[in-house]
Amino acid sequence: MDRHPLGAFIIVDKELDRRLQAVRQLEIPTVQILAPNKERDPHALSKKFSEAGVEITVVFCGFKGESYADIPTVRRTVGLVPAETQIERLKEAKQISNFAKSLNVPATALHIGFIPEDRKNRDYKNIVAVAQDLADFCASNGQGLHLETGQETADGLLNFIEDVGRANIAVNFDPANMILYGSGEPLPALKMVGQYVKSVHCKDAKWAKQPGQQWGEEVPLGDGDVNMLEFLNLLKKVGYFGPLTIEREIAGEQQIMDFEKGITRLKKWKNMVWNE
Ligand code: MG
């Protein structure tokens, strides 16, 4: 794979063909996909992507019952942290890792959920053990396990990675999430966790009036508070070579239009930073 290929994050659902067509038209060579929640047929999917000439770089887990309606709802429903669904979701995450393996994809990723900050807390120790279990499973499939940033501070994330202590644990750095959740300035956070970053989301957002209490606003790439040029400069500094995967969390035609606008900008910044 080329260094820093462009990428797009796409959901695998009944709109897949339309999204894939847009990705081809925009000449985006790689994608991260959100695993379908059922009927995970790797052969059909693999064929579709290889015919399109698009490489899947990461498979993301999503779980039934997750809701991003507001920050308290995310806390209650997202990832492997909520106790009621933990066993069942851990099992499903392993199935998704197997699905990724059949697609020949080298990484499984997820939002693990709101990790407690107190390292002595019982729930904290529990989620460390769950992450170790999943990381070991991914390792047995020859994969990395990428944790999407967002809900935790850079300090919290570093502590967690150290406590999990597995070589295949990495970070999928999404600078916009830190703004959306109010979990800290994204660029200083990237400096701190840079050595672990193995994939990124090029996504932009504006701070909420009360960060951490209410959502910030996700906006087209370059229209928000991230400072994407500086973000890419920092990626260069930390020696990141992976895909630059654009993410826009809306659906329909507007998503495709925003992808187009974002990719044009991203190409320009990429040339400024890497002269490629
Ligand atoms: Mg993201």
Task: Describe the fold and architecture.
The mean pLDDT is 95. The strands form 2 sheets. An 8-stranded parallel β-barrel has the order 1-2-3-4-5-6-7-10, surrounded by 4 helices. Helix 4 packs parallel to helix 5, helix 6 runs parallel beside helix 8 and helix 9 crosses helix 10. The chain is globular and about 50 Å long. By secondary structure, the protein is α/β, with parallel strands linked by helices. The protein has 10 helices and 10 strands. It binds magnesium ion (MG).
Which characteristics define this entry?
276 residues, alpha/beta, TIM Barrel, eight-stranded parallel barrel, two-stranded antiparallel sheet, 10 helices, 45% helix, binds magnesium ion
Structural topology:
Blueprint: E1 6-11, H1 16-25, E2 30-34, H2 42-52, E3 55-60, H3 71-77, H4 86-102, E4 107-110, H5 122-140, E5 144-148, H6 154-164, E6 169-173, H7 175-181, H8 186-193, E7 197-202, E8 204-206, E9 217-219, H9 228-237, E10 244-246, H10 252-274
Parallel strand pairs: 1-2, 1-10, 2-3, 3-4, 4-5, 5-6, 6-7, 7-10
Antiparallel strand pairs: 8-9
Helix pairs in contact: 4-5, 6-8, 8-9, 9-10
Bound molecules: magnesium ion (MG).
Magnesium ion binds at residues 148, 174, 177, 201, 203, 247.
- The residue ranges in which pLDDT falls below 50 over 5 or more consecutive positions are none
**CATH-derived architecture:** Alpha-Beta Barrel
CATH class: Alpha Beta
User: Which range does the strand content fall in?
Assistant: 15-25%
Q: Cα distance, first to last residue? A: 14 Å
* Topology as a string of helices (H) and strands (E): EHEHEHHEHEHEHHEEEHEH
Q: What coarse outline follows from CA principal-axis ratios?
A: globular
Bound compounds, each kind once, are: magnesium ion
Strand order of the largest sheet: 1-2-3-4-5-6-7-10
Largest sheet: 8 strands, parallel, barrel
Structural class: alpha/beta
By CATH, the topology is: TIM Barrel
Our count of helices gives 10
Rg, alpha carbons: 17 Å
Helix content: 40-55%
Domain tally: 1
Number of strands: 10
CATH superfamily: Divalent-metal-dependent TIM barrel enzymes
- Average of pLDDT: 95
